[in-house]
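Priority: medium. Attachment 1 of 2:
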C-alpha cells in the first residue's frame, strides 16, 4: 500500500487519542498518497461506522468525504454528519450525483478521498453496488480495501485494489476478498459478503 504518514495538528492528535486510548481501537497508520482515492469501508452495519471512520482518517492525518442519504441531514444530526465529512446523496438521482463526484475529482487541484460502502445500506446485502467502480475509473481514483472491524477493533485504509474494466467481476472479487477475513460489523447480522 502506498501511504504517507503526516504530521498531525492538535485536532488530529485528539481524534487519534480518542479512538485508540478511549475507545480502544487499533488504527493502522497512513493515508493513500494518490490525489484521488476511493476508500472502501466494510462491514457497514451501523451509523457509528461513520464516527469511527472519521476519528480514524482524521487521526492519521487525512481528510475524507463520505456519501450519506440526504434524509439523514435533517435537524442537528445533519450538521454533525456534515462536520464528519458527509455529502448528501439523492438516491432517486444517483447517476447525477456520481457524475458530480467524478467532476470534482477531475477538476480539483487538491483531489478527493472518498469513503464508500459498496453494500449501500446497513443491512446484509449479497450483491454489492458498483458505483465506486464508475467513480474510480472515470475520476482517476485508486481503490483501497479498508475495513472497520468491530470484533477486533481494528481499522485501516487497507491495501490497493487494482480494477479491470468489468465492474461486476471486480465487485465479486472484492466480496470474495472480504469473505476470507475474520472481521465483523457492530451488528454482525447486518454483514454479508456472498
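Attachment 2 of 2:
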Amino acid at each position: 500500500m502506498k501511504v504517507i504518514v503526516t504530521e498531525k495538528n492538535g485536532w488530529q492528535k485528539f481524534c487519534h487519542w480518542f479512538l485508540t486510548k478511549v475507545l480502544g481501537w487499533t488504527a493502522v497508520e497512513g493515508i493513500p498518497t494518490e490525489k484521488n482515492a476511493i476508500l472502501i469501508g466494510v462491514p457497514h452495519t451501523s451509523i457509528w461506522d461513520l464516527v469511527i471512520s472519521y476519528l480514524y482518517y482524521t487521526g492519521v492525518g487525512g481528510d475524507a468525504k463520505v456519501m450519506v442519504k440526504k434524509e439523514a441531514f435533517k435537524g442537528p444530526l445533519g450538521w454533525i454528519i456534515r462536520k464528519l465529512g458527509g455529502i448528501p446523496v439523492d438516491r432517486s438521482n444517483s447517476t447525477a450525483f456520481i457524475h458530480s463526484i467524478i467532476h470534482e475529482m477531475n477538476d480539483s487541484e487538491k483531489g478527493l478521498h472518498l469513503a464508500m460502502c459498496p453494500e449501500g445500506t446497513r443491512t446484509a446485502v449479497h450483491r454489492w453496488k458498483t458505483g465506486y467502480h464508475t467513480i474510480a475509473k472515470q475520476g482517476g481514483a485508486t481503490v483501497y480495501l479498508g475495513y472497520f472491524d468491530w470484533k477486533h477493533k481494528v481499522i485501516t485504509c487497507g491495501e490497493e485494489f487494482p480494477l479491470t474494466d468489468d465492474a461486476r467481476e471486480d465487485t465479486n472479487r472484492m466480496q470474495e476478498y472480504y469473505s476470507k477475513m475474520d472481521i465483523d460489523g457492530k451488528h454482525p447480522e447486518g454483514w454479508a459478503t456472498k
